[in-house]
């Protein structure tokens, strides 16, 4: 796929993220916008998920361990044609299947219910190990936040995956340097994440999380790495694409008002 096509998908996805959160007047725009390019590359060039296999396990699977960025996952599924567009307007509303944290029982393409930080990564490790034990060659991908990496379960999983040489597992750590209470370096500094994952026995790749060429190369390298899991350390900008949201912790979990929403959409359309 041409880079321009990926960029066009990413633009649509970012607009739909804002649409969901504005309609609900609730949600997490910052991290969703920041990780958009990562998941665009993953779902449109790397994973083999499609309408035919979405309800099965004979395909690559994805776990959104940072489950509060569900608007991103729902927007991705719409862009892939796996979720009806009109459902986005029901996000976080009563009786909607599109909950604030994704539920695998309600939405095809959501491979694990997540929300409590750290737990999705552990489940992804188990899913990937089960694939290997069952002779299923498909891979499992997991998106983790850098703030989330303050959770002890992250490092228990990192130790387990390396111990079992779980090369069916690829973790992407979304490093935007922010969390709900401010800078990760001020709250509980998780860095250097690359050196820590290396120390746990992982193959580590550092990338710009907004560069599709780097992401493409990293996922290819991860798929070719045998005998150890891979961690892709992706540097991103929280709120990417909307000037007044970029690198601002205040937009971690806040919905835009009408004026802000219209400005954000205008900025994205102009890109």
The 3D shape can be described as: globular
Tally of structural domains: 1
Q: Count of DSSP E strands?
A: 7
By CATH reckoning, the class would read: Alpha Beta
Rg from Cα: 17 Å
| Structural class determined from secondary elements | alpha/beta
Query: What are the low-pLDDT stretches, counting only 5+ consecutive residues below 50?
Result: none
- Spatial strand arrangement across the major sheet: 1-2-3-7-6
CATH superfamily: Thiamin diphosphate (ThDP)-binding fold, Pyr/PP domains
How large is the share of residues in beta strands?
5-15%
| Helix percent band | 40-55%
- CATH-assigned fold name: Rossmann fold
CATH architecture: 3-Layer(aba) Sandwich
N-to-C series of helices and strands = HHHEHHEHEEEHHEHEH
Mean pLDDT figure: 98
- SS field, number of helical segments: 10
What is the CA–CA distance across the termini? 19 Å
**Biggest β-sheet, characterized?**
5 strands, parallel
Structure description:
The protein is an alpha/beta fold and 271 residues long. It has one domain: Rossmann fold (3-Layer(aba) Sandwich). 42% of the residues lie in helices and 12% in strands. The protein is built from 10 helices and 7 strands. The model has no long low-confidence stretch (mean pLDDT 98).
Short description, anyone?
The chain has 271 residues and is α/β, with parallel strands linked by helices.
């Amino acid at each position: 796929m041409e880079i321009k096509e990926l960029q066009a998908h990413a633009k649509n996805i970012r607009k739909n993220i804002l649409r969901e959160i504005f309609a609900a007047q609730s949600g997490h725009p910052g991290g969703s916008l920041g990780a958009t390019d990562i998941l665009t590359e993953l779902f449109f060039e790397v994973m083999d998920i499609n309408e035919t296999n979405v309800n099965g396990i004979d395909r690559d699977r994805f776990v959104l361990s940072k489950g509060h960025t569900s608007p991103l996952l729902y927007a991705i599924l719409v862009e892939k044609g796996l979720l009806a567009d009109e459902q986005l307007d029901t996000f976080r509303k009563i009786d909607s299947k599109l909950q604030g944290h994704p539920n695998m029982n309600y939405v095809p393409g959501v491979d694990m219910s997540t929300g409590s930080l750290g737990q999705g990564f552990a489940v992804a490790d188990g899913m990937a190990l089960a694939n290997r034990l069952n002779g299923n060659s498909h891979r499992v991908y997991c998106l983790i936040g850098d703030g989330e990496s303050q959770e002890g379960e992250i490092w228990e999983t990192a130790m387990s995956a390396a111990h079992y040489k779980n090369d069916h597992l690829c973790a992407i750590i979304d490093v935007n340097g922010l969390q709900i209470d401010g800078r990760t370096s001020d709250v509980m500094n998780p860095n250097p994440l690359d050196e820590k994952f290396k120390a746990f026995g992982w193959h580590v790749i550092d990338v710009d999380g907004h560069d599709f060429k780097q992401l493409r190369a990293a996922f290819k390298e991860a798929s070719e790495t045998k005998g150890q899991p891979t961690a892709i350390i992706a540097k991103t900008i929280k709120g990417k694409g909307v000037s007044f949201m970029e690198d601002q912790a205040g937009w971690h979990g806040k919905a835009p008002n009408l004026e802000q929403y219209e400005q954000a959409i205008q900025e994205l359309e102009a890109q």
